[in-house]
Amino acid sequence: MFVMVMKKSLILLGLALFAFGVALGFYASQRNCLVAFIAEGRMNLWTAMEIVGGLLALAGILIVLVGLVKKT
Q1: pLDDT (tens digit, 9 = 90+) per residue, 6-47?
Q2: Total structural domains in the chain?
Q3: How far is 29 from 24, CA to CA, in rounded Å?
Q4: Vertex 22: Cα angle to 25 and 5 (nearest 5)
Q5: Is residue 2 part of a domain?
């Protein structure tokens, strides 16, 4: 029983982290800062937030996959 609750909580944590990372990445990308970073090498707060949002979304996907694959 505890294992099922733990699996569900892992999946929910991963989905929440993914949603937050996607929202943060999309909000920061409205400023076209990643394009400026690639084209001109300029880095500011919003570029860092966009990168962090992408990493959070990736971590969320990995946590969901671990929760789905984890054996009982």
Answers
A1: 778 888 999 999 999 999 999 988 877 777 788 888 888 888
A2: 1
A3: 8
A4: 145
A5: no
Please give the biggest Cα pair distance in the chain: 54
Identity of the amino acid at 55: L
Is-contact 34 50, C-beta < 8 A? yes
| Among 5, 18, 2, 23, residue whose Cα is nearest residue 63 | 18
Task: Report yes or no on 1 lying in a domain.
Answer: no
Mapping DSSP to helix (H, G, I), strand (E, B) and coil, where does residue 39 land?
helix
Q: Can you give the pTM of this predicted structure?
A: 0.81
Q: What is the domain extent for residue 36?
A: 7-69
